[in-house]
Fold these 3 entries.
Entry 1:
Amino acid sequence: MTDATEVRSRTEQLLAAHPPATTDRTDFLKARFDAGLAWVHYPKGLGGLDAPRTLQTAVDAELTAAAAPDNDPRRIGIGLGMAAPTILKYGSDEVKQRFLRPLWVGEEVWCQLFSEPGAGSDLAALGTRAVRDGDDWVVNGQKVWTSSAHVARWAILIARTDPDLPKHRGITYFICDMTDPGVEVRPLRQITGEAEFNEVFLTDVRIPDAHRLGEVGEGWKVAQTTLMNERVSIGGSRLPREGGMIGPIAQTWRERPELRNHDLHQRLLTLWVEAEVARLAGERLRQQLAAGQPGPEGSGMKLAFARLNQEISGLEVELRGEEGLLYDDWTMSRPEFVDFTGRDAGYRYLRSKGNSIEGGTSEVLLNIVAERVLGLPSEPRNDKDVAWKDLAR
């Protein structure tokens, strides 16, 4: 088992052989991956050392102190937080070797082709079809709410391969080439003015069977790995004290005493404490991850993330009074990554409205927490044994 001493030695060797000040950024990141210091808990040869996940913190701290470049995780968050763990668990050796290195280095951006116009909260009702044609699958359908599709090179995709089975079965999981001529990406402008989301139309897109993850018909099982990791990455990201949405309002409170009153003070104190509790709960969740795969607890963290962001941003607008109603720029843009706390108070307030939808709606996550964490009875389902093609639409 790799220990802290070996990890520290490898980090020192990396910095000595590739000084950050004089080494090209991409070359440094590739060398870091090859040294097993990308994600130390991954297998050797795939960016890791088969080491405990907890040792990653020490690696990151040393590299940060040496002013080493990072891989811009906000830009490639879907690849890091969702595609990579799914590929690691279900991909063939060839798939792992092909995709993990450029994914981590940031040479290839990923997106997620899951939700559809008729299958959002009820994702298992998806209708995008994949039909086997020799060594390929031919895919036709439409996806929606796809972050980063306009800059993505690859996508994780779930499609229906057997409509004669109930909706949670007969789904298969693929890696889709976003440069295929049958892939069309259209922007979806949001309430913020931006279009970070997209709708994606798939017309006779060919995917080699070698780019299938998991067995045919077991895509829902594979997707659970993706979704659990997604919720942890959204709701359980590492933050310093007063990181995230609580930071800007706390700063405003300290710098603008003329805006204060007793009622706002009490509400801010309550939300500050709740944000700190959520931050520490996220740290505990990450420690639990060191011992295994993410579980349904990540859904609880994502629930807290959405509620707190919306309540805090609403209080910030109220605290600023007339200033809070101002908005800096409605110009249509297609950003490469999501910045929940960027720009001004008006942006934060509007953008946070999407937090209870993206990454699993709050209503669905409440069901997951109730059934899988608290052990409450499942909601009755009358479509459990009905073939997908026979479902009412």
Entry 2:
Amino acid sequence: MELVTEAVAGRREEARHCAWCGRRLPDSSRIGRPRRYCAQPCRQRAYERRAAVQRGGLPEDAVVLSSGELADLQDRLFQLRCAAEDIATAAADGAARTELHRLADELVHTARGLERLR
């Protein structure tokens, strides 16, 4: 019984994320199958995507983005590149450590926002 309890506890310590939007899932003390989605709308969007992929004959691992989602992704990638260039420029110009630290924090914030594709 102790091994089962340790295995369940170890599984709970891992950070799990929604299979649709990427948000962190709340820690669950439930026994049974772990959650894959943070809420019903995410579950519904995932179902709709799977159904569309099957109807369209696309490969199972295909990623389908609307033109708006693609434009948003491109904007966020541009922001990430600009943040990285700001750090490189500041370092080349001999910026103070505190300034580099602030720019690095901005880069991390931008990258975290980019992790969520939807």
Entry 3:
Amino acid sequence: MPAPRKYPDELRERAVREVRSTGRPVTHVARDLGIHKEALRSWVRQAEADAGERDDRLTTLERDELKELRKEVAELRRANEILKAASVFFAQEIDRPQTRPSR
């Protein structure tokens, strides 16, 4: 479970919008809104990536997709290990000599 967000989404959106629309420095907007300047700087960079203005970061959609794909890969690897163990077990069962109970 992810950690709770320190800042509400509305505050994040408002702060990013203010930096991008007014051109004011991130540090001034952060101080006015009571946000850590590096948090706001990160949000602005992510908003720029989401808008296609930056190529050095994944967009939010790409990041979410990557997270889901990694989760799916981990699940498939676990399933593969289970299947490998089951195949070894059944191969051993087949190789055992069949004995009939004596009468």
